Amino acid sequence: MTGLWYVLGFLFAGTSFVFMTIGMAWLISHRNRGDRHKGLPYESGIDTLGDTWGRFGLSFYIYALLFVAFDIEVVFVYLWALVFRDLLLGGLASIAVFVLILMLGLAYAWRKGVLRWQ
How far is 117 from 59, CA to CA, in rounded Å? Predict the structure, then answer.
């Protein structure tokens, strides 16, 4: 029965956290209080030129995904390097497979032309 109280407590805490966060954001958010420049993008007070809802190219998104993938690789390789002496040959083989899979993904992206800036 004690486990049920923990689950209900966490459920209540999580739900109240969500609603309190939304409520606090609503209370402190900027609202248009008579200054027409506050509602403009970037709040610089300068009138925007062109469409403010312009689209970005898909290449930016793909570059961001590749950056995240290889950034995570660096974290794993760094952690592996910290415990290299304890892992012996099995650890070397596992990191070699890990890096090989990532290099295959990089070669695939390169072959598809993802890394070509247009």
Answer: 8
CA distance 109 to 115: 7
76 lies in the same domain as 35: no
Cα angle 21-25-27, degrees, rounded to a multiple of 5:
120
Domain around 89: 57-118
pLDDT band of residue 23 (cuts 50, 70, 90) is very high
Residue 41: CB partners within 8 Å, gap ≥ 6? Answer: 48, 52
Give the HSE-up count for residue 70: Cα atoms under 13 Å, Cβ half-sphere. Answer: 12
pTM, full prediction: 0.47
- What are the tens digits of pLDDT across the range 69-117? 888 888 888 888 888 888 888 888 988 998 899 889 889 888 988 777 7
Count of helices and strands (H, E) across the chain: 3, 0
Count of domains in the chain?
A: 2
